[in-house]
Write a structure and sequence with these properties.
Pfam families: ELFV_dehydrog (PF00208), ELFV_dehydrog_N (PF02812). Homohexamer. Keywords: NAD, Nucleotide-binding, Oxidoreductase. One of its GO terms (biological process) is glutamate biosynthetic process. The protein is of the alpha/beta class. The protein has two domains: about 40-190, Leucine Dehydrogenase, chain A, domain 1 (Rossmann fold); about 195-350, NAD(P)-binding Rossmann-like Domain (Rossmann fold). About 45% of the residues lie in helices and about 15% in strands. The protein has 17 helices and twelve strands. The longest helix is centred in the last third of the chain and has 25 residues, at about 380-405. The protein binds NADPH dihydro-nicotinamide-adenine-dinucleotide phosphate (NDP). NADPH dihydro-nicotinamide-adenine-dinucleotide phosphate binds near residues 198 and 308.
Length: about 425
């Protein structure tokens, strides 16, 4: 805490991982001897830069850009870029730290990193977004590359922003280096199923949890928070598996539609018009909008928090438990607070942490890198099948590791230990560097 003052989210993420590692360190004292824990908690490199850009009226704005290259023992740094006014070093470091273990869990050759800016894309015109993305990439371009660091999207960064950044990188370097960013459009090097991957992957993971007790999503009532990339494609897969999504949200509040939220309308509202979720209730008499409040008050069998960090606190956890929710799988990064996770554990709610349940996005980004490297383009079905296999594999790895370390059913412990061991062993093999 003294070494990284004021970085509350980073402290929270580190504490959560370290708390799980006691049994590993006891079993493998060489990790201590080689200083693996302090080394893994310190980013290899943190880049902070100024981003000047002009709005449509010609006024100049100054934002701050970040890229934290955390750990590259397993491969090039890999992790998204977040554009949101709440972004500061502590947020980027928490996300980068989580990313190390998540990427390790996928079994693919990718290290951990994260970046972003405190730029607020809300209410900006297309031209303003483009000028910001170009200014951001002008500063970032010298630090990335297909075998150095490969950024992708996150909150506030989707296909449009990746396009503007890729264009600027191409202009600056004079090279068509497809593998420098992932989340690209399908006609210029993107992978089919990348857009869907995080939401689909979270549902695949939860489905594996259900299968252990011979259950399925068929007929289940689900609450999904958020209405961005992850939430929308969780909704799509849930519909395909026969579940009903009764509530979704954005930062203004949540909507409830007991008959099930309509995917096509939600896509049109959020992906095309970039509107507010309250407009969904304006257009549908079966739906109601609740301003502010907490979505977790809506009764459900399963909850998928897919919006942002610390959105599900102890009050939300208690409401879910009281209403009979039996499974929570995180589509977002660290959406549940530590006391909410404890409440789930004590209340017998099955719980999957984001670093396991939402790893489908980065795994499919790694598949995009493979396609770029071989100048190939796979079908949707093939890519989705590989995504599902990867999620089944992550689920198995977490469940088996939890069992091996005497915590059966504890996916938090399983994910932290399995991810850590893979990175720690690679760090040992590479020596003290
Ligand atoms: P988007 O920007 O597409 O969507 C974010 C959604 O969350 C929006 O509906 C937004 O509402 C809502 N939201 C943001 N902040 C709050 C808040 N404080 N309270 C309530 N709602 C809020 O982002 P993504 O869907 O890509 O990301 C969502 C989460 O998933 C993040 O935690 C991200 O790190 C994680 N994730 C994303 C991956 C990906 O592939 N995209 C991969 C792995 C994890 P509003 O529009 O009002 O701000």
């Amino acid at each position: 805490v003294r070494r990284n003052p004021g970085e509350a989210e980073f402290h929270q993420a580190v504490r959560e991982v370290l708390e799980s590692l006691d049994p590993v360190v006891k079993k493998r004292p060489e990790y201590v001897e080689y200083g693996i824990i302090p080394r893994i908690c310190e980013p290899n490199r943190q880049i902070i830069f100024k981003v000047n850009w002009q709005d449509d009226k010609g006024r100049v704005h100054t934002n701050r850009g970040f890229r934290v290259q955390f750990n590259s023992a397993l491969g090039p740094y890999k992790g998204g870029l977040r554009f949101h006014p709440s972004v500061y070093l502590g947020i980027i470091k928490f996300l980068g730290f989580e990313q190390i273990f998540k990427n390790a869990l996928t079994g693919m050759p990718i290290g951990g990193g994260k970046g972003g800016s405190d730029f607020d894309p809300k209410g900006k015109s297309d031209h303003e977004i483009m000028r910001f993305c170009q200014a951001f990439m002008t500063e970032l371009s010298g630090h990335i590359g297909h075998d150095i660091d490969v950024p992708a999207g996150d909150i506030g960064v989707g296909g449009r922003e990746i396009g503007y950044m890729f264009g600027q990188y191409k202009r600056m370097t004079g090279r068509y280096e497809s593998g420098v960013l992932t989340g690209k459009g399908l006609t210029w090097g993107g992978s089919r199923a990348r857009t869907e991957a995080t939401g689909y992957g979270t549902v695949f993971f939860a489905d594996e949890m259900l299968k252990l007790s011979n259950e399925s999503f068929e007929g289940k009532k689900v609450v999904v928070s958020g209405s961005g990339n992850v939430a929308i494609y969780a909704l799509e897969k849930l519909n395909q598996l026969g579940a009903t999504v009764v509530a979704m949200s954005d930062s203004g509040g949540y909507i409830v539609d007991e008959g099930g939220i309509d995917l096509a309308q939600m896509q049109e509202l959020k992906e095309v018009r970039r509107g507010r979720i309250s407009e969904y209730a304006d257009a549908n008499s079966s739906a109601r909008f609740v301003e502010g409040g907490q979505i977790w008050d809506v009764p459900c069998d399963i909850a998928l928090p897919c919006a942002t960090q610390n959105e599900l606190s102890i009050g939300g956890a208690r409401a879910l438990i009281k209403n009979g929710c039996t499974l929570v799988a995180e589509g977002a990064n660290m959406p549940s607070t530590p006391d909410a996770i404890r409440a789930f554990r004590d209340g017998g709610v099955r719980f999957a942490p984001g670093k396991a349940a939402n790893a489908g996005g980065v795994a499919t980004s790694a598949l995009e890198m493979q396609q770029n490297a071989s100048r190939d383009s796979w079908s949707f079905e093939h890519t989705e099948e590989r995504l599902q296999d990867i999620m089944v594999g992550i689920h198995e790895r977490c469940a088996e590791t939890a069992e091996e370390y005497g915590r059966p059913g504890d996916y938090v412990t399983g994910a932290n230990i399995a991810g850590f061991i893979r990175v720690a062993d690679a760090m040992m093999a590479l020596g003290v560097i």
